[in-house]
Amino acid sequence: MAKKKEITPIINENIEHESLDSIMGERFGIYAKYVIQDRAIPDARDGLKPVQRRIIYSMYLNGNTSEKPTRKCAKIVGDVMGKLHPHGDSSIYGALVRMSQDWVMNMPLIDFQGNNGSIDNDGPAAYRYTEARLSKFANNLISDLNKDTVEMTLNYDDSEEEPVVLPSRYPNLYVNGSEGIAVAIATEIPPHNLKEIIEATIYRIKNPHCSCDDLLNIVKGPDFPTGGYIYESEGLKDIYRTGRGKIEIASKVEIIEGKDTNTLLITEIPYKVVKKDLVYSIAKLSKSKDIDGIIDVNDNTAGDGINITVELKKEVNPEIVLTYLYNKTQLKVNYSANVVAISHDRPKTLTLTSYLDTYIEHQVDVITRRSKFLLNNAKNRLHIVEGLIKAIDIIDEVVHTIRHSKDKKDAKENLKTKYGFSEEQSEAIVMMPLYRLTNTDINTYINERDSLKKQIIDLEEILQNDKKLKSIIIKDLKEISDTYGIPRRTIIKEKEEEITLDKRDLVAKEDVYVALTKEGYIKRSSFKSYKSSNGSLPGIKEGDTLIMEDIANTIDYILAFTNKGNYLLIPVHEIQEGKRKDEGKHINYLVTLPIDEYIIKAIVIKDFDKDVSIVMISKNNYVKKTKLKDFFTTRCTKPITCMKISKDDEMVDVSVSNGNSNLFITTSIGISTLFNENEIDNIGLRSLGVKAVSTTKNSKLISLITFRNDEKNKFLFITDKGAVRIIDPSKYEITKRLGKTQRAFESFKSDQHYLVYSTKILNSKDPLKLQLLMSDNSIIEAEINDFKLTPEKNCKNNLEIPTNLKISNVYIHEVQKIDKDTIVEEAKTSIDNSNDSGNVNNINSSQDTKEEDFKDYEQISIFDEMGD
User: Fold this and answer.
1) Are residues 157 and 288 in the same domain?
2) 709: DSSP letter
């Protein structure tokens, strides 16, 4: 017969329905409370997180103290993890190592043997290699721990007891500081000077109603183990007044002046700054285009403190470089303090006064518990001693009674019955060896009895007299301060006046050659490279032409203008150095230049404070003037508008005016106008300007020359077919803007010439070298030897060029500069309305004409100078 299947009875399940959000909220709250109270936030009373407290207690229990040899960290970690801290070994070992690091802790609590990491953020050696023990200073945390000074609680598996808090005979929370991130809460407590904090604690004990400001006369501020400087600020005071505050920590740097170089010697760095990262950031800056004065950065740090050297060029101001490094690296950092600790079983933001009150309250409790413990022991011992004295008085009877008793229990009962001894006294008598009982001098016990009575009186007084109790705390604190106190490492000083940084101050001043081409290729080369080239023109790309090539200083700027009505501002020190014969590098690595945009002019600027203006013209007959200072910008990464022009227009020329300059504007077919710059107002960068020439006969503006009334320059004009004309501008009439036009040159329609270049030239014995870019992109070098005036207006082909080619561009080694020698004049009108002609003045009419002024001039016909 088949066996019947067993039927499993149905169990009625009790299922409770609950929403996920309520479960998550409740469970996360439990988790958050655990992390805050049992992991990340220190207790205000002893300044320790649970893992730190458990490490110290475990080492204390195992006798791994300062007077004993060190033990393997693997054993220490294992003991802590197995008995007290049910978490990963890495967190335990990390906490153990941190308590030994003298660049983290003001007063290290662990003596470490082996590699415990470094200020370079190197990790420690594995715990199987290292050893540790409690430091001598850590004894002050565990002092009297065996005298019931603190509450004990069961460990995670109820197999061991551990202290809820350590006695901590000094204010460890402030002395060593702490940091931690919990759930929705974090703490960042800076370390302080032991002497100052103890002195403030004593002051608070004596003056319980003192203000925070009173305590700030003692506690100057945080005292970091890495030293450095802290600047006085409201943020510094807020740390103690509110528990939260922000301060600046600066490195200690000494400037050492040498014969050929200067050196910044860094001997202290801000707290928690990784040294190797700091060195790397300075070295990286030295290679950037922002600073040109750092020669080398070296980390010479050994075992005797920080030693970082930054070698500077002699030409660079070390104070400026230091200020720059303070601003750009972790040589100076902001530190935000957030004094959060567990106080009365909950996290609180503590002010200085509330923290000291919490700590003093803890010490009162420790001394009270210790006194009660000692009092109880003293009373118990006194009772025993009094019994021993009584026993010695009747020693023969006592010995006889013990000998004739059956066993220990019978002996105790007989002593109690016959002589009136108590249970404790009887126990002490029977447990004492007979030879001691019979040979001990009664005076020894009498002295001990008297001593115990005095001790009991003292302990009772401590418990009954609050003043006496606090005097014990003060005495212990002073002892610790005298034994372990050290001078302040971090100096508090007034905030220094901010130095306004000009990037050029960070650059070694050096004259260099700068070359810039029409297509935007730029380079700088040294004098050595220039000399080796024997004065030949710098290398350029085929089809390109030079716009400028001249000496500039590394602290100068190149103000370059483009055909699209934009400008570029380029610091010379940011231009990459190259060989003179090289083509250079496209300007896009400094400023993004669109493909259809090219350079038309460049000016070397040394001083933007000069009260001069930039005059610009466009081919469609517009002129505008803008103050030089408007062109300054701290950073130029793309072209910036300086003349708002239409799509079919282009900016064609730019020049500098000094406040009372004359403007000589010429079109492509030689039509010219001459008027004073004050005919037009200075306007903003994004404006278009005003009409320049009254009639252009459908030609386009090509050139602009600015000059002063007292200049004796000649003007040079070059056409596309190689015609050269030299004129004297003083023979031209100054009119109003849009006034009568004049001719710079003329040509027949059958042989039309178009202007490609014009400039001012000086009388010189040296030939004027030209670089002609031809229509086939070839370059022809030419020169002008004769600088006499050209009476003929009609163009003649003076330059030898192939008949099938035309000149498309000309380069002459001449660059406008704005520097200390730039002449600035007051704005004056040069139009004399009282003149009979109504609108004409001669430039030199107010000056005496001297014969030598015309010694290089040829006689010309008056008709050559007449307008159309």
Assistant:
1) no
2) T
Q: Tokens 């020439």, residue?
A: 693
Same-domain check for residues 793 and 726: yes
Torsions phi, psi for 434 (to 5 deg):
-60, -40
**Residue 622 designated active-site:** no
Look-up of token digits 């030089």: 628
CATH number at residue 277: 3.30.1360.40
Q: Are residues 299 and 155 in the same domain?
A: no
Number of other residues whose CB lies within 10 A of the CB of residue 789: 18
| Segments forming the whole domain that contains residue 264 | 259-330
Residues in the chain: 868
Q: Which of 167, 201, 226 is the last residue of a domain?
A: 167
| 291's tokens | 């600073």
Kindly report which listed range (169-173, 210-214, 780-784) carries the lowest average pLDDT score: 780-784
324: tokens are 């720059």
Closest to 749 (Cα-Cα) out of 816, 669, 849:
669
The Cα 563–Cα 649 span in angstroms is 9
Number of domains in the chain: 4
Place of tokens 């008085």: 393
Nearest CA to 349 among 192, 186, 496?
Answer: 186
pLDDT above 50: residue 799: yes
Q: Is there a single domain that holds both residue 323 and residue 359?
A: no
715 and 674 within one domain? yes
Given 152, 167, 182, the domain boundary residue is 167
Q: Specify burial of residue 432 (Cβ count, 10 A radius: 0-12, 13-18, 19+).
A: middle
User: Which residues 6+ apart lie within 8 Å of 723 measured at CB?
Assistant: 717, 745, 747, 753, 795, 796, 797, 798, 799
Q: Which of 129, 156, 589, 857 is catalytic?
A: 129
Residue 360 falls within a domain, yes or no? yes
Rounded Cα distance between 278 and 250, Å, is 13
Structural Rg of the chain based on CA atoms: 46
CATH number of the domain that residue 607 is part of: 2.120.10.90
Q: Which amino acid is at 4?
A: K
Residue 504 lies in a domain: no
**Residue 771 lies inside a defined structural domain of this protein:** yes
Q: How confident is the model at residue 532 (pLDDT cuts 50, 70, 90)?
A: low
- What's the pLDDT band for 207 if we cut at 50, 70, 90? very high
Rounded to a whole number of angstroms, the distance between the first and last alpha carbons of the chain is 139
